[in-house]
Write a structure and sequence with these properties.
binds zinc ion
Length: 120
């Protein structure tokens, strides 16, 4: 009895690291900032996965926008402030997420009436 036939053909494709060095520290810091932003926004809107977020502009207008932490093409991101166009007053303003639970029925209805472009 010979224990042959055990030809180990364990061909593991070597996953070589990318040749260029990535600035890991910068990436980690950026990821941490996005995580903090996500936590703050999620806390304010009371849901972690909802896209729709009620925000208030500097003039007090309430509207609903898509707020994806870390991703934005229509606004200039400044942490949990954003410079974007207010569809209520048709002006550019800094907007911040508001706590929906702290709004009255009228305010909530007003926020729901105005929804800006459905792009992040
Ligand atoms: Zn406004």
């Amino acid at each position: 009895m010979t224990c042959g036939g055990s030809t180990a053909t364990g061909r593991s494709t070597p996953s070589r690291a990318a040749p260029h060095r990535s600035p890991t520290a910068t990436r980690v810091a950026a990821a941490a900032l996005v995580a903090i932003e996500a936590a703050v926004v999620a806390r304010r809107r009371g849901a972690l996965v909802a896209l729709d977020t009620v925000v208030r502009c500097r003039r007090g207008h309430l509207f609903t926008t898509w707020w994806i932490p870390g991703a934005s093409v229509k606004s200039l991101r400044l942490g949990w402030w954003r410079l974007q166009r207010c569809p209520v007053g048709r002006h550019w303003s800094l907007v911040t997420p508001v706590r929906v639970a702290g709004l009255g029925d009228e305010e909530r209805a007003s926020a729901a009436r105005y929804h800006d472009a459905r792009i992040p």
